[in-house]
Amino acid sequence: MPPPGVCLNILEARNKQDGYGSATKPENFLNQDYQQLKQYCLIRGVRYIDDMFPPDRNSIGQDLLNSSDLARVEWLRPAKISPNPSFVLDGVSRFDFGQGVLGNCWFLASIGALTFQNDVLGQVVPLEQTFDENYCGLFHFRFWRFGRWVDVVIDDKLPTIDGRLIFVHSKDPNEFWPALLEKAYAKVCGSYTDMSAGTPEEAMMDFTGGVHMCIQMSDPPPNLWELMFRAGKYGALMGCGTPQGETSANTVLPNGLVQGHAYTVTGVKQLMSQGKLVNLVRLWNPWGKGEWNGNWSDRSPLWQTVSADDREMCLSVNDDGEFWMTIQDFCEFYTDLDVCSLCPDFLDGNSCRWKSSMYEGRWVAGTTAGGCMNNRDSFWTNPQYRVKINNQYTHKDGEKNMLVSLMQKPDKRNRRLVQNLHIGFSVFEVTKQVRDNFISDTFTVHILHSHSAALLNDTT
């Protein structure tokens, strides 16, 4: 650990892109090697059972099911649930599945966004897996966890009651990629119970390893729709949430929206209606049903004010959980928008030419515990990182973009037991006096109570 207040050059951080933990060489989660386990099962002619996430009540977790339902749970392989199980049927789509009794709409909303990005989807969900050749009851998935890609193996025993899946279920009973993906993420979280409650940004980060931006709908930027349009164009994942309200969660409001619920942003579109341009946002409910019934909903008469071509392209009158609304209604009825992308190119519309670096550190009581800026005597002892933005990477208007993403590693296996610390950072431009003695165009980032920080500076 460096001495208090030392200013590290973050651009010299070790590049782990080609080592283990990268997208091409993920680490084995819990030291379980997929290929070795599969070879072992095939040689011995056995079906895999995961002893690190066994098919029992511990993997379901506490307080999710009542005692009578828990006693009725039977873990079944897909061949015992459906006559012709398949991993994927007719491609992967957000309309493949619906939420079960588990309160993980945040996770399923993120899967809905993931289905639009084939490259990212293939990284998370190896689509070559089948129930046919070399099947041994073993599957694997990949997630990005706090700076490292991990490969997670599971057996395909799924929790059922009366032969029906308890949690996420496919619209086609023969398709099982959603249920198996959910089980793999439950293993990462510690149990199915540990997946209860969350925000889309958490899963979207684990699906991409990208950068995240959260926009509060109470104070949206004036160019919100244009920002969302660019995010969609550049392949970003987008999710959002409704306010909790005074009543219990999952309450369906008269307008058709669900309180305290996560949704996927699945599209943006600008249409000409009655001589005026209208900016629309398309959203999807991970329940797989239940929709907004206000302006521009499926049966709204406003669809008769647009061209036949636009109506044919956009309108689908099905209770599939997907609907349109104006950007104004979106800002009124949603609390926040999460945007997650491999690169922050959607911010300015330029191609991905950002240079990224990551530094892992920690807050140590008594040495680098400087507190916030209110603690002026000790603030300087916080870890500091120096970032240089060269003049050739400056925008034409003279601006220099830098994006700082701060994340905190958990200290426990079970997600619901993790207690996050209050963390933050401040960015300062080095003064001319200091700059003359050191490096030009330099910024210093003070990390407050941090476990890990990733910085990206625009080299456009």
From TrEMBL:
GO BP annotation list: proteolysis
Q: Which SMART domains match?
A: calpain_III, CysPc
Keyword annotations: Hydrolase, Protease, Thiol protease
Give any GO molecular function from the UniProt entry: calcium-dependent cysteine-type endopeptidase activity
Q: Which GO terms describe its cellular component?
A: cytoplasm
Question: Where along the chain is the active site annotated?
Answer: C105, H261, N285
User: What CDD domains is this protein classified in?
Assistant: CysPc
Which Pfam families does this chain map to?
Answer: Calpain_III, Peptidase_C2
Calpain catalytic domain spans which residues? 47-343
Family from the record = Belongs to the peptidase C2 family.
Name of the protein described by the UniProt record: Calpain catalytic domain-containing protein
Q: Which organism is it from?
A: Lates calcarifer (Barramundi)
